[in-house]
Amino acid sequence: MFIFNLEKILAATFIIFLIFITPLPTHAVGGEGGYSGAYLRIGNGARALGMGGAFVALSDDATACYWNPSGLGQIQKSQLAFMYNVMSMDRMLNSFNYVQPAGKLGTLGLSWLNFSILDIDGRDITGSPTGTFSDSENAFSLSLGRKLSPSLYIGGNTKFFYHKLALQKATGYGFDIGAILTIGKIIRLGGMIQDIASSIKWDTESKLEEEFPKVTRLGISIIPKEIPITISVDYEKNAKQDAKYHVGAEYWIIPSIAARLGYDKKNITAGASAIIPISSINLRLDYAFAPDVLQQWATHRMSLVVKF
Q1: Which of 37, 76, 208, 270 is the most exposed place for a label (fewest CB within 10 A)?
Q2: Calpha distance 138→131 (Å, rounded)
Q3: pTM of this prediction?
Q4: For the structural domain made of 2-28+53-75+85-255, what CATH number should be given?
């Protein structure tokens, strides 16, 4: 009884903390780009993106490193996850996630998220061509998630940022924290604060420092016992954006085939998965048709999760 009461106290304290630190939309702007670290909001993994990005309370695969590291505490086997996405205007988004259970310590995760733009036309002050250059933004994360009690998971990320634009470079650090509370076998509550004290500093003469906006996410997932469906809703508040909601559903048609539908800031998303067992290895191929948060049209996302 004491453990259960302690869980409720810890969970309530965490949720209240998230609510009170959520910035008010006094200086909100409409678009997704135009601020440092905007690529960190594009998402990771076609499964979550097919559900409209409503994944903070679920976070039950290797992409939990991105969505909510506390979810790593429920992973019992090693996993690899890859995502490859060619976007418009010569942009690319790639990610890599590796998670490894580590006994009583919990589950460890390593991840890399890369956003790049190739073949940008360079011009001098007179407007004359100077050749092409590229822009590459990278976030490397070391994650830990663990099961604190039968129904409470906690976790966090330590992140290192590396940004290269033409010949200039910038580096920096940041942190994430998260928690998931399960209520019976049907309801899951999740919360996460992303990019706490996150910033990068350029190697220019001015030593320009750019701060990343902090993001708060709260979510609920419902998993009925009678049918193989999951319904999720997330609330997201970016310190420099208006609040927005993500809604998604996942339905397993048969044990190896899933279909998804979602809503992500006035955009409909969709997706599907196929599980392919090979000996002791389990492959899951995920597809999503989801909005490009930095532009006004949707893109095709593909990712692969390997469980072994």
Answers
A1: 76
A2: 24
A3: 0.84
A4: 2.40.160
Report the range of poorest mean pLDDT among 6-20, 44-58, 136-150, 254-268.
Answer: 6-20
Give the tokens for residue 22. 């959520």
Closest by CA to 176, choosing from 138, 221, 150, 141, is 141
**Angle at CA of residue 134, ends 132 and 137, nearest 5°:** 170
Domain boundaries, the chain: 2-28+53-75+85-255
Nearest by Cα to 141 from 64, 48, 61, 45: 64
The phi and psi torsions of 271 (rounded to 5 degrees) equal -170, 175
Asked if residues 43 and 55 have their Cβ atoms less than 8 Å apart, the reply is no
Q: What is the pLDDT of residues 225-239, one digit of tens each?
A: 889 999 999 999 988
Residue 69 has phi, psi (to 5 degrees) of -65, -20
Q: DSSP assignment, residue 51?
A: T
